[in-house]
């Protein structure tokens, strides 16, 4: 997979002044206008978009592939495709919609290409933060061994059943539950009407409720 050399300052947080300068230049502009700046040759606009969306792209990819290194590589590929498309970009849809459409297609293609290589994973859908690698506590008190086991079983069941959903239902659930996207945004990414998106999510959650009834 081709990769794009991203500015180390944008990735490690050491160039605060550069970030503040970019925010000052582009913070009041919408994303489509920034893309038009990039199309005109302003690379600072591209750096700003990477800064703004990188974490959410890594997180979204992580939900699909359950591997942090792969998620980071795929997120980088998303931005590479954005850069390659700068000359033909048209502000016909929200930039974020276009970005998630690229990410969804990459994630789906990766899942298809590696299906024969993947085995049951020990990474759980809600277990860790792909940016920090940390596991959030369920409560302040340290849970007992039985509670830990039940939580682990529940997370494994959720992961398995979400990933077993039909492709569009799976993508819709990931965007709705984990990215906080509304019906219209999801529909724009998947090229569905708002009512069709509601129906798709209804079927997905109905399936999950049935499959997970022992854990509810």
Describe the structure.
This protein has 216 residues and is mainly alpha-helical. The protein has a domain at 7-118: RNA polymerase sigma factor, region 2, helix turn helix motif (Rna Polymerase Sigma Factor, Chain: A), CATH 1.10.1740.10. Helices cover 65% and strands 0% of the residues. The radius of gyration is 19 Å and the shape is globular. It starts with 7 loop residues before the first helix and ends in a 5-residue tail after the last helix. Mean pLDDT is 77; it is low at 7-17 and 118-141.
Q: Globular, elongated, flat, extended or rod-shaped: what is the shape? A: globular
Structural class of the secondary structure composition? mainly alpha
Mean pLDDT: 77
Order of helices and strands: HHHHHHHHHH
Distance between the termini: 41 Å
Number of strands: 0
By CATH, the architecture of the domain at 7-118 is named Orthogonal Bundle
Q: Remind me, CATH topology of the domain at 7-118?
A: Rna Polymerase Sigma Factor, Chain: A
CATH domain class name of the domain at 7-118: Mainly Alpha
Compute the gyration radius: what is it? 19 Å
What's the story with the biggest beta sheet?
Answer: none
Unreliable stretches: 7-17, 118-141
Name of the CATH superfamily of the domain at 7-118: RNA polymerase sigma factor, region 2, helix turn helix motif
Strand content: under 5%
Secondary structure elements and pairings:
Layout: H1 8-12, H2 16-26, H3 31-39, H4 43-65, H5 68-84, H6 95-113, H7 145-163, H8 167-178, H9 183-190, H10 194-211
């Amino acid at each position: 997979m081709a990769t794009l050399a991203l500015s180390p300052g944008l990735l490690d947080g050491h160039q605060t002044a550069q970030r503040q300068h970019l925010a000052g230049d582009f913070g009041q502009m919408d994303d489509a206008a920034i893309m038009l700046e990039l199309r005109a040759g302003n690379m600072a606009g591209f750096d700003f978009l990477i800064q703004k969306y990188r974490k959410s792209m890594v997180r979204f990819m992580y939900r699909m592939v359950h591997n942090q290194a792969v998620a980071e590589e795929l997120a980088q590929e998303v931005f590479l495709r954005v850069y390659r498309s700068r000359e033909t970009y048209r502000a016909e849809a929200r930039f974020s919609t276009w970005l998630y459409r690229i990410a969804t297609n990459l994630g789906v293609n990766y899942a298809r290409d590696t299906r024969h290589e993947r085995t049951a994973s020990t990474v759980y859908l809600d277990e860790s933060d792909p940016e920090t690698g940390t596991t959030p506590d369920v409560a302040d008190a340290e849970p007992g061994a039985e509670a830990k086991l039940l939580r682990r079983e529940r997370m494994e069941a959720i992961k398995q059943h979400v990933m077993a959903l039909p492709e569009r239902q799976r993508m819709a659930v990931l965007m709705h539950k984990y990215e906080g996207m509304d019906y219209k945004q999801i529909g724009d990414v998947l090229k569905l009407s708002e009512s069709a998106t509601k129906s798709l999510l209804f079927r997905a959650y109905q399936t999950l409720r049935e499959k997970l009834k022992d854990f509810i």
